[in-house]
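re: the backbone from monday

yeah here it is again, tokenized this time
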């Protein structure tokens, strides 16, 4: 593949090593959401949610999704651990958007710039094309302050489509 990654493959929910490695990447994803795009308060909120209970619930959520389609969570296996992952919701769970939903994509910093993210995005697009949904779109939520992510999505042909707004509760 030229990326140093052994293979792009479905996550194995029955493999304890995959579960441990996926959690490490998920932590990196969550901590990255609060880093540099919203100040210390946002970073603290994301860091505080990473409890043992959240880890267990996340593992159960992943397992439910991959039961529908094993490709919902696709990993980049570097041979000595996971380099990254992409998580696309199963079409049964994405009906709210009427489109395929890219829930998460994350590449460990040591593997950024190697093409791993591109290969994971290709896997996500392939899965999305196979889903049976009313709209032929792959949607995601991206922080407008995350210039790196926005540039990546722009490069992969994502365009502005509507606008998400939020209100504090």
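seq for it, each position gets an aa:
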């Amino acid at each position: 593949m030229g990326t140093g990654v052994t293979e792009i493959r479905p996550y194995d929910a029955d493999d304890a090593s995959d579960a441990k490695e996926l959690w490490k990447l998920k932590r990196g994803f969550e901590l990255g959401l609060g880093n540099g795009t919203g100040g210390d308060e946002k970073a603290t909120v994301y860091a505080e949610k990473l409890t043992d209970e959240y880890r267990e619930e996340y593992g159960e959520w992943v397992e439910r999704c991959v039961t529908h389609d094993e490709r919902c969570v696709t990993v980049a296996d570097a041979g000595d651990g996971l380099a990254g992952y992409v998580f696309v919701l199963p079409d049964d769970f994405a009906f709210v958007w009427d489109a395929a939903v890219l829930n998460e994509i994350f590449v460990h910093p040591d593997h950024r710039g190697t093409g791993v993210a591109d290969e994971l995005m290709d896997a996500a697009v392939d899965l999305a094309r196979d889903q049976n949904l009313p709209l032929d779109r792959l949607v995601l939520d991206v922080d407008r302050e995350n210039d790196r992510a926005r540039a990546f999505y722009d490069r992969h042909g994502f365009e502005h489509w509507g606008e998400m707004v939020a209100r504090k509760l």
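The first helix runs from residue 16 to 33. The domain at 7-155 is CATH 3.40.630.30 (Aminopeptidase).
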